Amino acid sequence: MLLLGSLLGLELIGKVPPTLHTPLMSGANAISGITMLAALTLIIKAGNTSNTLLLVLGAVSLGFALFNVVGGFLVTDRMLAMFSRKTSRK
Amino acid sequence: MDFSETLKFLIDLSAVLLLALGIKGLSKVRSAREANRLAAIAMTLAVIGVLIDALGSARISVDAWIWITLGSVIGCLFGMITAKKVAMTAMPETVALFNGCGGMSSLLVALAYAFTPSLLTDSTTSLSNILVGKISIVISIFVGAVTFTGSMIAMAKLQGWLSTPGIMQRKIRHIINIGLAFISLIGISTFFSSGGETGLWLLVISSAVLGIGVTLPIGGADMPVVISLLNSYSGVAAAAAGFVVGSQLLIVAGAMVGAAGLILTQVMCKGMNRSLVSVLFGGAIASSAISGGQNGSNEYLNITSCSVEECALTLEAAERVVIVPGYGLAVAQAQHTLREVTRILEASGIEVNYAIHPVAGRMPGHMNVLLAEADVPYEQLKEMDVINPDFPATDVVLVLGANDVVNPQAKNDPTSPLYGMPVLDVQEARTVFVIKRGMSAGYSGIKNDLFELSNTSMVFGDAKKVLGDLLLELKELGISGKA
């Protein structure tokens, strides 16, 4: 799995125009917030053990991850919106 | 496989496919925006997948729902506010901030699992799986902590809140960092042998400090590379967290980001003609520059400075003008004023192009984003290799807040620390105007020989103000010229 993912990542970023480095970075960054799935799993499991500390920890973790995801995607979109406005006009 | 398991599998599969398509699409201008949305949809799918899976195997308690909602609402809210409010110039530090939070999240999950071994045992049964879980926890904590503190330092440095303290430029920092890494190792081994909390805290603290120690000495010009690398790390942390909670989707996605980030880092390094190793361990180039500079002095001689008026007159008589934007333009928020100026020039039949150095600004693509915001046509943005042969046929070059990327030392002076870095050959043009606030050095801290050349004139002042004055002058000239 690890290998597969890495190979996929390597394959996908073959050639990138420098223009898109920043958006790509911020997009990949948003995806790295996928660790929110782990936070979610943690909360669900903790819910069954009714361990409040774990629940809080999970919630904080989820918050951080979502901050990353939501912010990341929105910022990327804002950046890219500028490019598309350009191309559509020309 | 019952129904919910099959469904979960299908959802995970499509999420991975969408993410892959998303990353692929992000590397092309045309499809980038859709790709970004695609990735966002994939994330939503993945979350639904986890929830369905949980509903299928065991019910989600009310407590869990409450905390899930709480965490998501707060996270989303802050994410949205930050994303909307932040200025385009502050993009690099924003990415660093988000990235750090991703690392933090992986760190917290791993910590939670580490402190409650029961969580690990009920998700994985065999002894070897527990070992895998423990290793993943350790990796996740280590990488997560380094990512978090490293990103925070990167952000603070880009914001200008923090400068490199002198002690961090000495060799001793390597010893300190190696020491910290060693302490992390001790923490890890304590955790494995006794499973105690002491080892964990040792690991958390030492890796957090290590993140600071590694990032702090790195000079601002290398910051984009560092952020990209940290981004790659946060992917690794996510993949490790995936092993901890036993989510294959997380492992694949994390690995994907990790690998993509690494490649991107490599590409950026190439743009600056520096190896990853020298970025990471070289520290601020400034320190070596001061001691190793060939001329010894950083004093400038024979500087020609000129008024905005002269600059306007020269521009008006030109046929081909090339703009070289740099970080100074971003700081001054002068992109719109610049666009006004170039509009006037274009209206009077002058050909205007923009030369974009791969690392202009603080992040690759930074200038493109900035100029795009000001409505500069995409076709006028020329990459370095494309524009360099054109400089000899260029009448006027306007350097706006750029410095190191136009330093001819990189070509002529083998002893210069910049030597070998690809630069824009602006000195080949007939006239060069450098708009700059003062004679201070660029990010590398190296003297720029360009400023002393006879065809270079300095126009001192804040980029926005100078461009504003230039605009007025040009308007006057334009009117008198047509009358």
Describe the structure.
The complex is a heterodimer of chains A (90) and B (483). With 90 residues, chain A is mostly helical. Chain A has helices spanning 2-12, 21-32, 36-49, 52-89. Chain A has one domain. Helices cover 83% and strands 0% of the residues of chain A. In chain A, helix 2 (21-32) packs antiparallel against helix 4 and helix 3 (36-49) packs antiparallel against helix 4. The longest helix of chain A has 38 residues, at 52-89. By secondary structure, chain B is of the alpha/beta class. Chain B has three domains: 1-85; 93-283, no CATH class; 308-481, Rossmann fold, CATH 3.40.50.1220. In chain B, helix 4 (91-115) packs parallel to helix 9 and helix 15 (335-347) packs parallel to helix 19 (463-482). The radius of gyration of chain B is 26 Å and the shape is elongated. The chains are: A mainly alpha (90), B alpha/beta (483). Chains A and B meet through helix 1, helix 2, helix 3 and helix 4 of A and helix 1, helix 2, helix 3, helix 4 and helix 5 of B.
Q: How much of the sequence of chain B is in beta strands?
A: 5-15%
The beta-strand count of chain B equals 6
Name the poorly predicted regions of chain B: 283-297
Summed up, the domain count of chain B is 3
Helix content of chain A: over 70%
Largest sheet of chain B: 6 strands, parallel
Q: Roughly what is the average pLDDT of chain B, rounded to an integer? A: 76
> How much of the residues of chain A is beta strand, in percent?
under 5%
